[in-house]
Amino acid sequence: MEEKILVLDFGGQYNQLIARRVREQHVYAEIKPYNKITPDQIKKEGYKGIIFTGGPNSVYDASSPHYDPKILELGIPILGICYGVQLMAYMAGGEICKAREGSEYGKAVLHTFDDKLFKDVPEESVCWMSHTDYVKIPPKDFLITAYTANCPCAAMCDEERNLYGVQFHPEVTHTEYGKQILHNFLFDICALKGEWRMEDFARRTIEKYKKELSGKKVLLALSGGVDSSVAAVLIGKAIGDDLTCVFVDHGLLRKNEGDFVESTFKEKFGMNIIRVNAEERFLKKLSGVTEPEKKRKIIGEEFIRVFEDEAKKLGKINVLVQGTIYPDVIESGLGDSAVIKSHHNVGGLPDVIAFDEIVEPLRELFKDEVREVGTKLGIPHELVWRQPFPGPGLAVRVIGEISRPKLDILREADAIFREEIAAAGLEKMTNQYFAVLAGIRSVGVMGDARTYGYTIALRAVTTDDFMTAEWTKLPYDVLERSSNRITNEVKGVSRVVYDITSKPPATVEWE
Ligand code: XMP
After folding, report:
1. What is the CATH number of domain 198-384?
2. What is the mean pLDDT of the chain?
3. How much is the pLDDT for 336?
4. What fold, for 4-189?
5. How far is the CA of 318 from the centre of ligand 1 (A)?
């Protein structure tokens, strides 16, 4: 039987991160809500280890998630993290209390004793704490194996029964030896081999949906972005022609992008893809509109209308597939944050199309894992490593009113800039780079004649999460070559500038 770990979810914020850290060590991890699986089922499923996650509660709250103490008797190694260790201690008869300072949050110096879980971890290292309660008195048969200044029992174990717990978070990178600690749990304590690979995720997902979706009519909105592309290929491999991908080309894509997306899925993967050429429809709606939010709204709504029209032609749809990935799940949870820009994606689709079920095959994966799956599936590098591209496309990069000639100028300038970055081998130096057609014209001179052309702004940013970003210090010669080529090769441009604003105060896109 394939080795797997159960991540038993008690509602903590790092649960997916824990699963990801386990996968990084080549062990398959399944996350299950604590109330959706019993000790008997755990045994039957053949899990080789269990991780109790953190959670926002206190074990003494009447409503806090508890678990059947029989789980401690299954003989399967357990690692409790944060609330998980408190629950383990509580179930086994220990005592929990509130932290002295109210709560402990941030980095702390961890002192460890000699213990299997801390093999190759120095006696003193940095760990990440985020808790209010802590274990005051460990249960009988448990030893304290680590402490910090504010937490007398930062780790405990009952080596005999393979029960381990840590108050800090080994899954976050601030815990210096977190990876080693998880490694020790997986390989020394659970005695796993670590043979799982991303190919296994793809295989497992394809098999799962082959069974679940067979005979159903399935629809996916393909944008050409990494997530929807990977979701499309996975489901396409599972159910072939029962999947229809609708690719709405709004005429706001980059140079050759629409053709590339269409040919990749049609020719390389032989998939059933409908490309809707809706440029005219979009440009008509956008005519005379200059206000950025209005542009975004129009495009978002029109996108849904076009998709809806297409879906209607297909008749009854059973399943809608979406390329939601884990960070989208987190972001959509933060419902209260202010709207800086109304981001457009296919999130509005479920409201307008009648279907029975949504399937999100990538829901548990992080972006880099999605890329890895995409690569394993043979999706071209250009798509798998495609930089983020906003749903409203070039409409938010042509400042002010949009027109086909302006879009064409921008497409050419943008293609040159991207070519120059690629030629200089800088694609990995910067996380997103593109051209913008600024809404101003300026005077230039060419030959002996006066010109009065558009200004192209080049933008490149360095960022981890796109929430904040720095402008990338691109080498001058790359900027110079791009500028020379754009002004020489693209008719209608008389000036090129480089955007040296970080986010905040600017945003990445100009609109
Ligand atoms: P901003 O301009 O908000 O951009 O700093 C942050 C990141 O989000 C991308 N972006 C979008 N992505 N739909 C998307 O899917 C959108 O409407 C949208 N607007 C901006 C932007 O390209 C950058 O990567």
Report:
1. 3.40.50.620
2. 92
3. 35
4. Rossmann fold (3.40.50)
5. 31
